[in-house]
Every structure is written in C-alpha cells, then in structure tokens.
Amino acid sequence: MYKYDNYDQQMVDTRVAEFRDQVERRLAGKITEDQFKPLRLKNGLYLQLHAYMLRVAVPYGTLNSEQMRMLAHIARKYDRDYGHFTTRQNIQYNWIKLEDAPDILADLATVEMHAIQTSGNCIRNISSDQYAGAAADELVDPRPYAELLRQWSSFHPEFNYLPRKFKFAVIAADEDRAAMRLHDIGIQIVKNDTGEIGARYYAGGGMGRTPMIAPLIRDFVPIAELISYAEAILRVYNRYGRRDNKFKARIKILVHEMGAEPFIAEVEEEFKHLKGLNIDAPAAELERIKAYFADPLFEAGLPDEIDRSDPDFAVWLDQNTHPHKRPGYAVAVISLKPTDGIPGDASSAQIDLMADLAEEYSFDELRVTHAQNIVLPHVKKADLYAIWQKLDAAGLATPNLDLISDIIACPGLDYCSLANARSIPVAQKIAKRFADIDRQKELGELKLKISGCINACGHHHAGHIGILGVDRKGTENYQLLLGGSGAEDVSLAKITGPGFDEDGIVDAVEKVTEVYLGAREEGERFVDTYRRVGIDPFKEALYG
Amino acid sequence: MNILTGNDLKTGDVVWWTGEAWSRHVSDAAEMGENAPDVMAREIAARTVSDCYLVDAERTAEGILPVHIKEKIRATGPTVRPDLKLAPPDPAAGNWVI
C-alpha cells in the first residue's frame, strides 16, 4: 500500500501544528465559534448530538495493521472504547473532546493518517472497491488511480471552496462494489479495443434528497489524462454549480438542469484547454505509486481445498468469503453486523484483533467497506478456519454478508444532529426478526439500507429494501422503499406509500420478503423479482 | 416552557442553563422566560459554551424534559448504548430512557 513521501508527511504534520494553534486560540477565547467552526470542519471535527465527532479518512478504504491499531488506540484513549466505520469507508469517533483533538491528529500523523477534507465543500475521501488488488474479476488494481486522485485533490487550491461537497469512487471491475454511479464522479478503469488502459467517466450521481444516477460523460479517457479530465469536470462544476441554494448545489443538479449533452460539451471544451497545461502527473509518478500497490509475495501451489467439517465454520465460509485472484487464497469479510450490535461499530479490542489477523494472515492489509464491514483481502484458504475461530471468539463471525441482516445504517438520531429518526434500533429489530441464518439464506442476497434523514448517509435509495426515517409531527416515522441498487445494475428505490412506526416498519419488511418468496422464480434475488413483478403486489401486501 | 442548552466548549458535552451556571443534567435546567436573550448573549460572549439555543420543555414526573425526541436523546445519550447514557443525578429519579 502507499507510503507517504516527505511532502505527504510534511503536509499532514504542518496541518496538525496549524490546528493545534487554532484550538488553543479557541479554548483561550481569542476566536469565536463562528470563526472556529470552518477551521475545525476542515479537520473533520463536527459538533454532533452529544459531543464532538471526529471523522478520520481511510483513503480508498485501505489500512495496514499499524494504522488499524492506531484507530483502536484513539478509541481507547480519547473516546469511549469504540469506533464507527462509515459508508464512506472512513471511521468516526463520537465522543471526542476538543482539547484532545490536536493530540489525536498528531497520533494519526505518526501512522500516515489524518482527518483533512473529511468535511466541507471540497473533494472528500476517494472511495473504491474493497476487494481491490485481490478480486478475481478486476481488470487492474484501481487504487493507484485513486491515490493519484487523492494527491491531486488534497489541498487543491481551486477546489477547496466548491459549491458543495464532492465525492469520487474508482473501480476496475464490471461488478460495482463501490456504488460508483451514485457518486459525484464515478470512474471505471477500463481497456479500449487496442488494449490501452483508460478511465470511463460518469458524473452527476448522488443520493441525498435528490437521488440521481450518474450519466456516462466519456467512455474512454487515456490514463495519462486522468487528472486533466477530472480537473475539467471540476472546473465546469465550480463555474456553473449553484451557490445560492445549498440543496441544489451538488453537481448532480447541475448535470440534470443543464442536461448531460451540454454539460459534456462544456467539459470537453475545458479539457481541450487543459490538455496543453501539463497538469497530469508524469508517467513515472504513476509508476512510482503503482509500485506501492504491487502484489504481496503470494505463495504458489497452495491447496484450494478447505476442511468444512465444522458446520458453523462452513456457513461463514460460504457467506463471508469472496474469490481471490490467486489459487489457494480467499478474501475474507468480517461482518460488523451482529444481531444485537450496531452496524459499523467495533470496540477497540475488536479493532486490535482485526489488526492482529491482518498482520498474521493477510499481508498486513485490511479494507473498510462502504457497507460498514472489514475485509482481510489476502488470506490463505488453509488459514480461514483459524481466522474464523478467532473472529468467533470476539463476536466478529456473523455469517451474514449481503444478507438481510447485513444492514447499512447511518448513526441516525442516536448520534447525528441532522437526523430526524433513529436508524440503529430499527436495524437491530430487523436483524432480530430475521436472526435465523437459514431464513436469511433462504431470502438470499438482500441489501437493506436505512437512513435517519433525507441526506441518505445510510444509502436507502440504493437498497433492495430501503428505509427512510422522517419526523412526522415530532414522532419518528419510517418510509419503505423498494428496488434500489448501488451495484452495476444501479437503480433508485421507490417509496411504497405511507410510512410506519418503529415496529410497523419491521412488520412491513417481513411482509415484502413474504411477497418475494411467494413470487420469485428460479435464481431471482429480491430485487430481480421486484423488477419483474413491479411494486403493486408489494403495496397490496402492505396496505391492502 | 423554554430551557437553554448548548455544548461545553472543551468537552462538547451537552449542557443546560440552571439559572446560574451550566449543568450536564437537564433536570437542573431553569425555565428561561424573558431572560433568554440576555443570558444567551452573555454566555455566547463568554465563549465557554458553543451553539446555545432554546428548547421546548415540559415538567414531567421525572422532572424537566425536552418535548422533542431529538432533544430528549441529546439530553440523555444514545438509546442503543445504555452504558453510554448519562446517569441521572438522583438514581431514585427513575429511568426516563426513551
């Protein structure tokens, strides 16, 4: 994985010193909250429902064990012994003290981490495929390109005050595991007919109050012009994006209102202008970055056979592992969705354990997924049983990847000052209702996503089943949506009708699964059946 | 009735104006009435508490509580982690967890 050079480290260290001074001045009463707020947000420090919340960037979701242990250390020393992994592949701490924040950032800097650009109207953490570098189906590892974009976008002076926040996702497989087309810019690394590597650009996607699927902007940009093309899109957005209305300021609104073709024409014009400016990184720089993402020293000749004699292990093996590109290896996914747990939360002891497992079994690498789970990307199949035993002992072996209880849920009203309703208790009730793993497996792949407000941090628009919490005259109410997907079959979920209370929404979810079981044809997932039969049978069951 | 809340500058803790000082416990909150603008202006100027604002509240058997669920959760802690909830100042006051 990427290692900081002197410039990276100096930038981060300088920012820590700068923020320490800003905090000291704030604590001494020399600056007001209005003056301080934009400064702390530049460092990922929010004031949330109960305390300060710090969001730490995990670039494209990749971590090593030393960094993971640092996340555990911060949870233990400065917070309440746990962290919350987010749908942006980041981690958040919910109980931070302002006076500790500079020390936390200094600790993070010692392991090449920071919280820069995790808030504000700038280019946020670049997200990617959690199986990058390991997946059997990828064209190339997308992370060198994500890293190039990270370097380009970090402290980019022109894009530090965009009309609104801006999110990239970069993938390199046809299977989209990063909700790529629901980003401001989605990039798929592809090969053209002559075998040349390039970038397929999508722009103008997003969730939030106005969900949009990003249209194709350009089918192929030579990889040597990856940055120029991103710059061209950002320049057009920066010039024409609305700044008069926060709710209409995202690029998706601009692309929608301008129309994709006129938007593309503007981008192409800007791209022509940029071509002569040599802003792309030299090929040698990309090669330097790529070297950091070279395959680890995989062993040859490893067996693919796995002893499945322990039935509990076999269930986990079938559900929570993914094909690896090398024989004898697998990708193992650690579910952070135990039945009574909080989606995405892990204690410091669990975080330490996952770091230990990465160091011992996975070439020192971990990934955070946008579905709020953790991945050990390169494990020998022969080690899977030992890994499972250690996970099981720590409450981390829930065998529910991509099943109905593998729920994405935002922090909701339990933690978030923007939320209108709680998400976590609903997730817990649904997980409890469907706790029987055989029942979950019978339902098959079913992506359930819950947001506690219209900002859609819980990706409810992209759920096969989505739930949106709203405030209805001071009471929590939950709308049910069906038919969304963040994958390569991307679609936006539709609201079924009137909302439900907290218990009613759990019953409603059960009812729609029963409709699916009654109507499905051979090999159909929930979302496939929904697309074939339409919303009416589901509405009939819900509202009669 | 209205009560005044904010977040402690150093810790971020939710605090409530008691009439004389800030308390972690909403049950200590004082009804603000016409004093609210003066107190808010003074406390904002003091720069020890951030984001001061007024909250609708009511007297209940358990003492003063915010009316809206968001402020109730804010006053007591996350409903999904009982271990992280703010312990009431008087254990006999009962459990008004949502």
TrEMBL record, chain A:
State a single Pfam family of this protein: NIR_SIR_ferr
**Alphabetical UniProt keywords:** 4Fe-4S, Heme, Iron, Iron-sulfur, Metal-binding, Oxidoreductase
Molecular function in Gene Ontology: 4 iron, 4 sulfur cluster binding; heme binding; metal ion binding; oxidoreductase activity
Species of provenance: Parasphingopyxis marina
- UniProt xrefs under SUPFAM superfamilies: Nitrite and sulphite reductase 4Fe-4S domain-like, Nitrite/Sulfite reductase N-terminal domain-like
Q: Where is the Nitrite/Sulfite reductase ferredoxin-like domain?
A: 52-109, 343-393
User: Nitrite/sulphite reductase 4Fe-4S domain: from which residue to which, for each copy?
Assistant: 119-273, 405-542
Protein name as catalogued: Nitrite/sulfite reductase
Give the coiled coil ranges: none
Automatic annotation (TrEMBL), chain B:
Question: InterPro entries annotated for this entry?
Answer: DUF2849
- Kindly provide the name given to this protein in its UniProt entry: DUF2849 domain-containing protein
Q: Which organism is it from?
A: Parasphingopyxis marina
